[in-house]
Amino acid sequence: VISLHANFRSLDPLPIHGPEFGSAMDEAETIEVEPESKQQVLENKEVVVQHVHVDGVKRTKDDILAYEIADVFRAKNLIEVMKKSHEARERLLRMGIFRHVDVLIDTAHGEEALPHGLDVIFEVKEMRRLTGSYNTMVGNNEGSMVLGLKLPNLFGRAEKVTFQFSYGTKETSYGLSFFKPQIGNFDRNFSMNFYKVTGQFPWSSIRETDRGVSAEYNIPFWSTQHTLKWEGVWRDLGCLSRTASFAVREESGHSLKSSISHAMAIDSRNSAILPKRGALLKINQELAGYTGGDVSFLKEDFELQLNKELLWDTVLSASLWGGLLIPIGDKGSSIADRFYLGGPTTVRGFSMYSIGPQSEGDYLGGEAYWAGGLHMYTPLPFRPGQGGFGDLFRTHFFLNAGNLCNLNYGEGPRAHLQKLAECIRWSYGAGIVLRLGNIARLELNYCIPMGVQSGDRYVPSFTSAFLLFGGFWSPVA
Amino acid sequence: MASPMELFIWRGDWGLPSVHTDSLTALAYARFAGAPLKVHKLSNPWRSPSGTLPALKTEQGLCLQPLQMLEYFKKQGYNADYRLSVKESADTLAFISLINEKLLPALIYTFWVDAKNYVSLTRPWFANTIPFPLSLYLPNRLHERHLEQLQLRLGSQALNSEEETEAQILDEASECLTLLSQRLASQSFFFGDSPSSLDAVVFGHLAPLLKAKLPNSKLQQHLQLLDNLCGFCNTVLSLYFPTEHTDTVSDTRRSAAPCETDEDPHKRRNQVLSVLVGLVAMLGYAFLSGILSIKRVSARGALPAANRLTEEGDEEE
Amino acid sequence: MSIAHDVLFSQMAAAEPWPENAMLYQPLKGEQILLSDNASCLAVQAFLRICNLSVQVVHRANAEYMSPSGKPPFIHVGNHVVSELGPIVQFAKAKGHSLSEGLDEVQKAEMKAYMELVNNMLLTAELYIQWCDDSTSSKITRSRYGSPYPWPLNHILAYQKQWEIRRKMKAIGWAGKNLEQVYEDVDQCCQALSQRLGNQSYFFNRQPTELDALVFGHLFTILTTQLTNDALSEKVKNYENLVKFCRRVEQNYFEELDHESRLSPTSRSLRDTPPK
Prior knowledge:
The structure holds three protein chains of three kinds.
Chain A: H1 22-28, H2 36-44, E1 48-55, H3 62-69, H4 78-94, E2 98-107, E3 117-126, E4 131-139, E5 142-152, E6 160-168, E7 172-182, E8 185-201, E9 206-221, E10 224-239, H5 246-249, E11 253-267, E12 278-293, E13 297-309, E14 315-327, E15 358-359, E16 362-363, E17 368-378, E18 393-405, H6 413-421, E19 425-436, E20 440-450, E21 463-469
Parallel strand pairs in A: 1-3
Antiparallel strand pairs in A: 2-3, 4-5, 5-6, 6-7, 7-8, 8-9, 9-10, 10-11, 11-12, 12-13, 13-14, 14-17, 15-16, 17-18, 18-19, 19-20, 20-21
Chain B: E1 5-10, H1 21-33, E2 37-42, E3 55-58, E4 61-63, H2 66-75, H3 86-113, H4 115-129, H5 132-154, H6 162-184, H7 197-211, H8 218-225, H9 227-240, H10 267-315
Parallel strand pairs in B: 1-2
Antiparallel strand pairs in B: 1-3, 3-4
Helix pairs in contact in B: 1-2, 1-7, 3-4, 3-5, 3-6, 3-7, 4-5, 6-8, 7-9
Chain C: H1 6-14, E1 23-26, H2 35-50, E2 56-59, H3 63-66, E3 74-77, E4 80-83, H4 85-94, H5 105-132, H6 134-146, H7 153-171, H8 179-197, H9 210-224, H10 231-237, H11 240-255
Parallel strand pairs in C: 1-2
Antiparallel strand pairs in C: 1-3, 3-4
Helix pairs in contact in C: 1-4, 2-9, 5-6, 5-7, 5-8, 5-9, 6-7, 8-10, 9-10, 9-11
């Protein structure tokens, strides 16, 4: 049986994360330096950048442009001018306020023109003041209509307001976000979100409606990206059906979570989907309950991924995830906060989030988990298609393992480790991966689940296909 | 009586003086009690002084709830319940509550929620009955109102699973019908030989269910099995509404002959007004949809723009 | 889960006897529970006690949301979750416990009708007074309803509920009534109940039925709950036989078992409030 899973466990607000430069940037990494000899000639020729023009600017303020193109003046030779202009162009594009940017390099004109002087001209076209989109989506017995509105460059300094509204046959969701980057340092930015999202999670027989406010500050620090966030969410949980287990029924009702969290990421990979080299480390910590609300916990989780290129474009990729949720106070953790494990993003061969504690077939999640994966990707046997269609395909061999359980915090760390090492679920297999643009991948696997515990659900057929979205890679709810 | 009371009700069909439960209840009680009435059988609720049907226009103002109308009739000296003992009055109250809680939701469900019935009976009937431009708007409005009413009666969680809800509503209503049948037993009316307010309420609820040609008729079939209830409805029809199927204006029981009329002194004015309202609504709709289409064009233009951005990014190298 | 599941119940439940660990879930009794919910919960408790079915009462702030019908109380027996009195009566019947077996057809019809009278008039009046009377809702209802939740959720949920109830009142034609008319309805309802009861011990002679449980739940709660004024309880106190009836049920079914769990939310007994 071939099944398609769109993976939306995460109840993140609609995809309204600040800038959308992911797609434009990955390809840029592939520019390789030109042949050595030619470069030598150009490098020797000294030039001075005399003027930089930006043509086509209507609403954008000068100060923000000046920061982005300032580097071009520092170029000392032709190759540097090209390189810096290219970088400046990338920086202008990623602000998301221009539809396109063309670069022209010309000899200097005018009275003060020097013999080795150059003018760099950026021809830009600004985005419309208001852009909109309209989609209809049909999913498993639910249809919805998604309306999106975006005001890029609201005040002329790359501020952005986005609004998404999805009206479904069963649920309505919306999100409103305001994004403001610091002038001259686009990676340092502030954003604010208001949202309502509804989700149905059949593996837990639960439906959840979240209404929330969040404020987020992103700061780059050396090569790491830090995010500080405050979030206040009103959560409404309910049973999906009358047959839901009593354990899930007991979780029904309203709660208010107010939390501060810090996330750190280092990403040196060359691409988010099927990277060839580089590493990723993400650490996330969340402290809830000290800023109001009736939910108190400390939550830590991390993700580590290492990629190494071997012979013949074969890539070895190792990943490790882990997380811990410590409830504070005498109230236990909520089903909405716990971790879930299993499925095509973590331990292949098991059904979506169907590992660990459960009650009458409803998975309740766990307070601690770890998962690891070892993958070998090879372009064979698609090598003949190199440079074209064949580049989209990889064959992979994998070994996944993980465990999810609840810890008794009265016991020491030794007991915890022992518990996490007991009853490990693992699986191995091989399959074909199809890369879909820069956001998703499709897998067709032959997979053998091992270490299945009673209560776990695994995919009965050995063949399965999954659609994964890069943005939802994390196994954490 | 200085001026007779005026009752505004939905017009009849299917051999009934009115197709509408509340209208029927009020009318039936008035007949039982012999209250002199000027009855307006309307096909447009906007012609009622309150904008809704039924409505009772009295010297003291308007009455909109059927039970309030019954109270008013009683105060005016038209009391069909004067023979009842205190215990029978208590029973009346109890059985009216039973009907209100258990039968009414099922009637709303049968006529307004059940897709088959709604599409092939209720909606066409109202769409054909209500005069033109309003017929585009009012049936939907009525539909929404009934859905909302049912949802609120059942509580917030009740419509989670439609099948279960349907089964529950219909089962409870069937039980209610059986209980009424048991209470009626072999009497001609609920409290002996003459009708009272409970009979008016039961008649108002059962007659439409019995006479409507429902394509999906689970509840109707159950009612048809209860001979004494069917007989009761037919007795009331033949005794108190003998001329209904011919729609003629006459009454055999009362000296103060009521004037049943569909005519309205302001008919022409209302027709002109309704046409105007319709025109404005249509123009408004055209205007709104025009705006919408303009927006959608610009939205379509915006999407390829985002793609172009990435494409051109590649070309530059 | 109602009569629709009658057959299902009788098949699945009849085989198992009433278990020891049956639970009754209702809102927190001290600071949260509202008059109307307390009446419904007490009615179910009374029914189970009259049936002599043991049940452990559990107080949960989210009882309303746990209940499959969205209304407290509900029982958790074996694998079954059944909410509200009507379905619980059906469920108990499937297990072989019934209070109305001895009645003839007409009596059963009357019993059901009077139960709906209580639901249709008393319960609705209680909801009206709680949520639609401005002084009661602002002084008592909203703060109690929101009490288990942190700011600002307590206000949001209370106003949300109030809005829902007011819409319901509009849908059933009660929105136009004023407080006096509602008290009149209560009086009318009590009068009907009082007439029906007459000077019998219970509504149908010597043995209490589910109607007695329901009437007791509502009247006892009204008599023992302190609202902004006494207008509501005065209406009930006007009918001496009803007050005596409440006292009788309390004595026969609650006092001897009192060590297990206290009955009224305010821990008041009718002994403290002698009838006029």
